[in-house]
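sorry for the late reply, my laptop died twice this morning and i had to redo everyting from scratch. anyway the thing you sent over, i finally got around to it. pasting the sequence first so we're on the same page, its 371 residues, then the predicted structure underneath. double check i copied it right bc i was rushing
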Amino acid sequence: MRFAGLLALLFLLASYERANAATLRILTLPSNATIDLYSEQRAVSVNARGDVVVNVVTDRGSRIVAWDRIGNRRLLDPPIENVPGEPRVDVKRAETAWGVMATDGRVFGVETYPFEGAYIGTVVRPYIWDRAKKQIFQRARCGGVGGFLFPTANSSDDRIAMSTRSVDPVSSRTFDDATPPAAFIIQGERCDALEIGWINSIAGVYASGYRTYEGSTIVSVHPNANHAFTFRAVRWNGKRALELGAGISFGVNAHGDCVGASRLLEIGAALPVRAIVWHGSRATTLATKSRNSVAYAINETGRTIVGSVWDDRARHAVRWRNGREERLESFLHAQDPPQLEVAYGITPDGWIYGIGRRHGSTVIFFLSVSR
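ok and here's the structure:
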């Protein structure tokens, strides 16, 4: 009798442990806001304070949504009004709006607007938004570079990574095919130039990203690039770049471990996309049963990697822990759990964050897994 009672107690404790194996937090987007799951850029960024920035598409164009660390949501104001000397555009309907939040709460962003008149073109505006006001980011701080500065990543010590772009990452509008991207790290009033390449992540002295080649020539970054282009993953140590081999790095940790994919994501592409981790210069493909996979972030120990896998039916947010793949949905035990589609990052205290869907709407999730 005592044994049966002990078994019952153990069963209840095990059930309780399973039910409490994960803690889920959901942030809801404005109505009609969606996120492109196949964008090469991570649509969600989180700063060291826990503030969140999400880049979305609405029925009024691209917008930036932000939450503070206690969950208050705001839709960032439309940009500065038309600038003298530039073509007039509809400032409330950006074709592209993209931002990354610094630790002090400022958002470094870029917006593009198509215009028509005597000729057709695109106005590109880099800016800084800091609650009180919005101002044009002065490219002269970075040497008056050509192309436009695109913010890509933040770090816990308040640095912002930027690269120059001649192809719009959302609309794929081409400004200049031949110009390779320049890479910069901004901290305070400083703007340090790195060796050429596109940056996707920074941590400690390291940054990571990739270069696009046409033959032996480094060219502009091409979203949805065709197979005439090849990609080489890059890791920066300080200002110096080292090519790691074929592929693209989306994430790096403070030890220089990089994660990414075998190539850019393309809808309906014939070739599969494979998640890769680079330890030093050694590349390892992460095992998965799905046709496609991509890794977006790696924690400081190098033991946990997060990303997404998908096939013709659905995408699933995953983590690889010590090489073992686990779908994040497997940790949820609620009666009506959201579908977790892409895991973009890991906070310093271990929360995994990304994009999911609940009742047909896109949501941002934060997941803490106790095992």
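The chain is about 5% helix and 50% strand.
thats about all i looked at so far, will dig more tmrw
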